[in-house]
Amino acid sequence: MTDIQTPVDDISEAPPAKPGKPIAWPLGLAGVALVIVGAFLSWSYDGQILNDLSVNFYPNGLQNLAIILAVLSLVLLLAEKGPLVKLGSWVDATLGLRALGLGLVLYMVLVLIAISVESDGLINVNPGGYLTLVGAALIAASAWMLPLHQLRDMSEARMPDWFEIASIAFLMAALLFTAAYTLAQDEAWPLILCLVFAGAAAAALFRSGVMSFVGHAGQRHRKVLTLAAFAAAFLFPFTQNGDDTNMSIAGAVLVFSATAMGLNIVVGLAGLLDLGYIAFLGSGAYVAATLSTSAFATIGWKPPFLVVVLLGACVAAILGLIIGSPTLRVSGDYLAIVTLGFGEIFRFSMFNLDGNNGPNLTNGPNGIPGIPDLELFGFNFGTDHTIAGIDLTRNSNYYFLLLVLIGGVILAFSRLNNSRIGRGWVAIREDEKAAEAMGVNVFGLKLLAFAIGAFLAGMAGTVKAHQDGAVSPDQYIFLESAFLLAAIVLGGMGTIVGVLLGATILKVLPEKLRFFLEYRLLLFGLLLVLMMRFRPEGLVASRRRKLEFHEEDEQLAVAVEEERLIAAEEAK
């Protein structure tokens, strides 16, 4: 039997790429020109839909998005053949162009469908819309005719420091612009089109290898990347023109992200499946509510808020120890069932602590409403403020406070992840018996994971109580725990950026896609199924877990090759 060949990783041993067709490059340029020209023309006869696409030579926001995709396509075409050919030696312009071409075609098809639906027929589509669609199709066709290239190792792609720092800053500015413009869309079709635009641009950057370069540049300039990310997040309220709705969503995202980061310690690092984690967020919120100056608060002691934050976090950590001590003797499905039961026990306890079935601590199902706004160092978070002529609302004030909180949570997670404790958690996740045999204190580290994760969730809960102005048991149901776990799976277990991305997606989309109210859970389930099928490691894969999936793929390829060779021998 011949030797079995494992998949080739060295690009020097990979088969040569097929040559492209000569017509591909000029066809792509023609497509770019048609998209830009078409975007300057009217797309719709009716000016009341899609933010008015009926004006010639004055493109509106949605037309500008098509122009941006066309300009990105032009850059990749010039990297394939033209003045930017040196860039093409590092990035795969063809793969990026394919993503842009298909995304632009989908974008224009949805535009025509939206015009047809909103204005009763395709007859209301003006020639500019059709011209842009034809240009998008030409870009997509040319991308499939161009030759594929072999990506170099982007860790070797070193540029001057000023260029790498400028690239990081430009990417963060683009993210800020895209987020601000997308959240500003209140109607269904413009919002969907913005999401398609963002998906096409992101796919092109990842498939071409540009994001790999930015990632390596970020590793070399980690402080710059961190500062740029927080600067973009800090500037977000200044892009909302006093819109309190979007800032309320942004604040909810930060609370959700901080809680998910705590759960990421338990699930992503230690590998413990917790289905009742929302109870720790609720415990922190109830501590803040009962110690507040609300008329419905049940405890007379009114300490400063900084003390309340520590108390809420410590109470949540104690609950984590209480649930962890007897239950961490079990694992797998049994642990999931026990933690699910703990979440329900917490919710029903909040119902019963009403003065009739137990001591009056939570006012039962009525909860504790009327929680006043925070006031720290003379600053009232419930008062609107104006900075540089821009109105900052109540939710903007809480957003800045939560931004400081999430910064502390991220710092704690990153330090733990890179510490001896974090390596112990990972060892337990990979093989508990082997970790115990190597001297790892398995039970102690599991208990510590529960306590620290609950501590971080309790801190977020104390701020959430004041931001919402009320707490009630109905806020802390099992579905919220399921969404927290889904955010980690979707984003990437054991990562920081992945969890933030997953939490943002699962918190923003349900709020903005309220016109799909009856189908939101269906879309949510479909998204998770697709993720498990095509990218089980999550949107942002952990380096350790990515290596595991890569090794599994290699083993599968070897097994398939063995079966093929055995079948060939038997046939002989």
TrEMBL record:
Record keywords, A-Z: Cell membrane, Membrane, Transmembrane, Transmembrane helix
Record bears the keyword Membrane: yes
Transmembrane segments annotated in the record for this chain: 23-45, 57-79, 99-117, 129-149, 161-183, 189-210, 222-240, 246-270, 277-299, 305-322, 398-416, 437-461, 481-503, 515-534
Protein location: Cell membrane
InterPro entries: ABC_transp_permease, LivM-like
Membrane topology: Multi-pass membrane protein
Pfam families to which the protein is assigned, alphabetical: BPD_transp_2
Principal place of residence: membrane
Protein known as: Branched-chain amino acid ABC transporter permease
Protein source organism: Kribbella speibonae
